[in-house]
Amino acid sequence: MEHNRVQERLADFEEGQLPNPQMRTVLHHLESCAECREALQQWQQTRQIVATWVTQEPSSPFVDRVMARVESLPVRTKRWIPEWLYPELGIAAAAAVIFVIGYFGVPSAHVSAETVLDSLQPAGSQWINTLHEPNKSAAEILWETPS
After folding, report:
1. What digits encode the pLDDT tens for the residues 19-74?
2. Which domain holds residue 18?
3. Cα-Cα-Cα-Cα dihedral of 105, 109, 114, 119, to 10°?
4. Is the peptide bond preceding residue 122 cis, with omega within 30 degrees of 0?
5. I need a labelling partner for 96 at 20 to 30 A (CA). Which of 39, 62, 109, 140 fits?
C-alpha cells in the first residue's frame, strides 16, 4: 500500500474500522516505516487528550437568552426549491431551450415548390408540366407567368 494512503487510513486503523486485508497491509507498512509509526503515535495521543475533555452543560440563563433570540426570528416558510438553486435552474432552463431548438430546429418560412404549386390551382397544373423542361431552373419555372 502506498505511503500516503496508509497515513490517510491511520485513524480507521486505530479504531479497527478497516477490513482485514487492509489492516494487515497497514500493519506490515508500519513495521517498516518510522514516519507512519510516529503519525500513528500522534493520532493515539490526540485521541487520549480529547477523551479527557469534560463536556460542560450551558447555564440556564445562557440557554434562555439563546432560545428567546431563536424564537424572535421570523419564521421562514419552506420552499420546495432552495434559494441557492435559483441561478442553476435558470441556467438549466436556458440550456434546455437551446437543446430543444438545436435538436428540433426553428420553424422556418421555407415554402416548398409543391406548396406554391398547390396554392396556384388551376394554374399550378400547367406548371407541373413545365417542370420537365431541362433548360430551366426551378426558380425560373416558379416565377414565370403562365401563358
Report:
1. 888 888 888 888 888 888 888 888 888 888 888 887 888 899 999 999 999 999 88
2. 3-52
3. 140
4. yes
5. 109
pTM of the complete model: 0.38
Q: Summarize the confidence of residues 83-108 as an average pLDDT.
A: 76
Domain boundary among 13, 36, 52: 52
Query: What is the pLDDT, as a whole number, of residue 48?
Result: 87
Residue 18 inside a domain? The answer is: yes
> How many domains does the chain contain in total?
2
